[in-house]
Amino acid sequence: MSNQNVNAHKGEDIPANSAADATMQETSTEPVQFPLVTLPGGFAADAKFMDVIRLLALDHIPLLKPDTAYEAKEIVGAEYWQLLKKSEPLLAGRCMTYLTQNNQLPLVDLGRGTDNHKRYALK
Question: Which of 9, 50, 58, 116 has its CA 20 to 30 A from that of 22?
Answer without folding.
Answer: 9
